[in-house]
Each structure stands twice: as structure tokens, then as C-alpha cells.
Design brief:
- By secondary structure, the chain is mostly helical.
- Mean pLDDT is about 85; it is low at about 70-78.
- The chain has helices spanning about 5-15, 20-35, 50-65.
- α1 packs across α3 and α2 runs antiparallel to α3.
- It has a domain at about 1-35.
Length: about 80
């Protein structure tokens, strides 16, 4: 539940992408990146929490936007 605001932000900024396992993994890493040392969860009052998660998820969603031959979506076919 902690990652949902960031995940929704990433989905909204990357329309038409499929949310798959790498995006969820990236959300978890975004949560870890905002969690202070020796804590199990990030500070819920940290204003950067959704942005950290959204950035990580957006990168994963963007990487997932590939054709079968490795070209990015939007690339011109050879």
C-alpha cells in the first residue's frame, strides 16, 4: 500500500505501458531507498516518498516499453 501513490504517478506519466513484475520490484526498491537505516519502513511523513517510488517505477516502466527485437517503443523500424 505504501507504494501505490508512487506507482499510480508512474503509470499516469507513462500511459499505455503494462505494469509487470519489474515495476513492482522497482517500487520496492524505491521504498527501500527512502527507509532510514535500522528501520523496517520509510517515514510516512517523508514528502519525497511517493516521488522516489514514482521515479523508480517510471524507469522500470520505460525499460519495459520494448519491442521483441529490443527497439524502444516509438523507434522507427529499420
Amino acid at each position: 500500500m505504501l507504494a501505490l501513490p508512487g506507482l499510480f504517478r508512474a503509470i499516469a506519466s507513462n500511459p499505455g505501458t503494462r505494469v509487470e513484475i519489474p515495476a513492482f520490484h522497482a517500487c520496492a526498491l524505491g521504498l527501500v531507498a527512502t527507509t532510514p537505516p535500522r528501520r523496517l519502513l520509510p517515514n510516512l511523513h517523508n514528502p519525497t516518498l511517493p516521488y522516489q517510488v514514482a521515479t523508480a517505477a517510471s524507469r522500470a516502466l520505460h525499460r519495459g516499453m520494448r519491442h521483441d527485437d529490443g527497439r524502444s517503443v516509438g523507434d522507427v523500424a529499420p
